[in-house]
Amino acid sequence: GGIGLDTSKELLKRDLKNLVILDRIKNPAAIAELKALNPKVCVTFYPYDVTVPIAETSKLLKTIFAQLKTIDVLINGAGILDDHQIERTIAVNYTGLVNTTTAIMEFWDKRKCGPGGIICNIGSVTGFNAIYQVPVYSGTKAAVVNFTSSLAKLAPITGVTAYTVNPGITRTTLVQKFNSWLDVEPQVAKKLLAHPTQPPLACAENFVKAIELNQNGALWKLDLGTLEAIKWCKHWDSGI
């Protein structure tokens, strides 16, 4: 749903061979709609919860790779926004993303004679500057930015490139109503939506543009219908 569904529709306007959708929620109507958009593309669905142990993720990926042989791009897009659910927010937004990425390295890592691949992680503008009333959610998105930047720097070793797409506030069900941390601002959703936002389709169009540009290490900001590359300021360097 939301950005994910609209982005899938945009992807199907391109010359794809396969589109594999992994989601916790089954939505046969949405899958049927996607299949009808471009009959030349094989659209498949597998049930998947990103919070499962990494061994289960690896097992599912083995099934998918056995079917398709090759996968070019992994888009990590699962996310929730509810700072009452602290552990689940971290599990879905960050741990699940790290585990899924780690699991696919078994098939992609050039040190294991893999072909390499591309990781596209969905972050958020809150990964740059937090919505301070939802510090748990914002913290997970900052973690996604840092993790992905590290993946990009490891590309010469692994053969796997990575970048983030970081949407601004997009009018999806995610932001219509959500809980702030310790209820510090019960009206956080209402106050947030009082400011300019973007529709999911505008975000999806720029999302696919970022995929097509395919720039290792890029930090893309997708806000108010625009696509902008963010230059990260270096305040410290490990030196190694």
From TrEMBL:
The answer to whether keyword Mitochondrion applies is no
Q: Which reaction does it catalyse?
A: a primary alcohol + NAD(+) = an aldehyde + NADH + H(+); a secondary alcohol + NAD(+) = a ketone + NADH + H(+)
GO molecular-function terms, A-Z: alcohol dehydrogenase (NAD+) activity
Q: What is its EC number?
A: 1.1.1.1
Gene3D superfamilies in the cross-refs? NAD(P)-binding Rossmann-like Domain
- Keyword Oxidoreductase belongs to the record: yes
Question: GO cellular component terms?
Answer: cytosol
Q: Name one Pfam family in it.
A: adh_short
A single GO BP term for this record reads: alcohol metabolic process
Q: Which UniProt keywords apply?
A: NAD, Oxidoreductase
Q: Which InterPro entries match?
A: ADH_Drosophila-type (IPR002425), NAD(P)-bd_dom_sf (IPR036291), Sc_DH/Rdtase_CS (IPR020904), SDR_fam (IPR002347)
Q: Which family does it belong to?
A: Belongs to the short-chain dehydrogenases/reductases (SDR) family.
Fill in the subunit field for this protein.
Homodimer.
Q: What is this protein called?
A: Alcohol dehydrogenase
- The species is Drosophila teissieri (Fruit fly)
